[in-house]
Amino acid sequence: MTEAERHRWLRRQLRAELESLTQQLGQLERTLSGPQIPEQRRASARAVLLDVLEEHCEKS
Predict the structure, then answer these.
(1) Angle 41-33-20 (CA atoms, 0-180°, nearest 5)?
(2) What is the pLDDT along the chain (60 residues), one digit of tens a residue?
(3) Apex 44 CA angle, 42 and 49, nearest 5
(4) What is the pLDDT of residue 35?
(5) Which of 9, 25, 43, 56 is found 20 to 30 A from 15 (Cα to Cα)?
(6) Structural domain boundaries of the chain?
(7) pLDDT score for 44
(8) What's the pLDDT score for residue 4?
(9) In sequence order, what are the residues at sequence separation of 6 or more whose Cβ sits closer than 8 angstroms to the Cβ of residue 32?
(10) pTM for the structure as a whole
């Protein structure tokens, strides 16, 4: 595998992982959007998930 092929493969892998994590975040946000969850907890959970997503992308 050439360096260019490896780079393209890694980009496809990262794109797929990012899409999966984005879908998971959306599902969790919908779950947390119920009236029983206070707004502050919703915002806090979203901030933590976005931090984890950013860290994951930086490591990959």
Answers:
(1) 95
(2) 899 999 999 999 988 988 888 888 888 887 777 666 666 777 787 788 888 888 888 876
(3) 95
(4) 64
(5) 43
(6) 3-59
(7) 80
(8) 92
(9) 41, 42, 45, 46
(10) 0.52
Q: What is the CA radius of gyration of the chain?
A: 16
> What pLDDT, on a 0 to 100 scale, did the predictor assign at position 2?
95
Alpha-carbon torsion, ordered 51, 20, 18, 38, to 10 deg? -20
Contact residues for 57 (Cβ-Cβ < 8 A; gap 6+): 14, 18
Q: Are 21 and 56 in contact (CB under 8 A)?
A: yes
Structure tokens at 2: 């050439």
Q: In 1-60, which ranges are E strands?
A: none
> Cα–Cα distance between 5 and 54 in angstroms, integer?
25
For residue 30, give the amino acid letter.
R
